[in-house]
Amino acid sequence: EDKVVQSPLSLVVHEGDTVTLNCSYEVTNFRSLLWYKQEKKAPTFLFMLTSSGIEKKSGRLSSILDKKELFSILNITATQTGDSAIYLCAVTLQGAQKLVFGQGTRLTINP
Amino acid sequence: NAGVTQTPKFQVLKTGQSMTLQCAQDMNHEYMSWYRQDPGMGLRLIHYSVGAGITDQGEVPNGYNVSRSTTEDFPLRLLSAAPSQTSVYFCASSYSQGQAEQFFGPGTRLTVL
Fold first, then answer.
1. Rounded CA gap, A4 and A102, in Å?
2. CA–CA dist A96, A91 (Å, integer)
3. Does B100 lie at the interface with A, CB-CB under 8 angstroms?
């Protein structure tokens, strides 16, 4: 069975801290890994990763994939209260147009 | 472009009632899907469609029906609502079968009493 596991499930930090969110996967025929941010409503796309070792970066957020060890991390530096959200990791499979989601990490940034 | 729209935003049903959750997109996307989101369980795929007239089951299809008569619309029908179907439902779409990034609608919060 295809499985995506995120850790931690919940994280509370102070504004300005750096956080690392983890996503590991066990799937057949991996194609890509995606990160989404979900605030009050729909998930919004952050990154898509297909190759190992290539960092994707957007402002204070960055992500990298390790296809040998089957995991990805999402880093957020100098966190702000606006970063408070649920962060979802999902994996797509070759030949199957669907996303397999992890449980999500609920990140809370306190001022 | 409105993107992906969903109606209603909120709905309360009694056990045994039926209803249809509407989903529409104006981006000419081929692929559309329905997910449900429950606390601590991420998003789980209910049904998906790779084009008009083609639908398939996802991870948790029982109790739900879908159809895709047009490219734009992908309604989700609850045949006989049960309390276990209390959830937040998201519709999503993407350009094609090879496009990984999906665009999500705002969600429908459904409560079944």
1. 5
2. 11
3. yes
DSSP string spanning B74-103?
Answer: --EEESS--GGG-EEEEEEEESSTT----E
Residues of B in contact with A32 (CB under 8 A): 100
- Tens digit of each residue's pLDDT (9 = 90 or more) over B51-60: 999 999 988 9
Nearest CA in chain A to B31: A97
Are A42 and B48 inside 8 Å of each other by CB? Answer: no
Q: Residues, chain A, total?
A: 111
A102 and B33 within 8 Å at the Cβ level: the answer is no
Of A20, A52, A18, residue with least CA distance to A33:
A52
Average pLDDT in chain A: 93
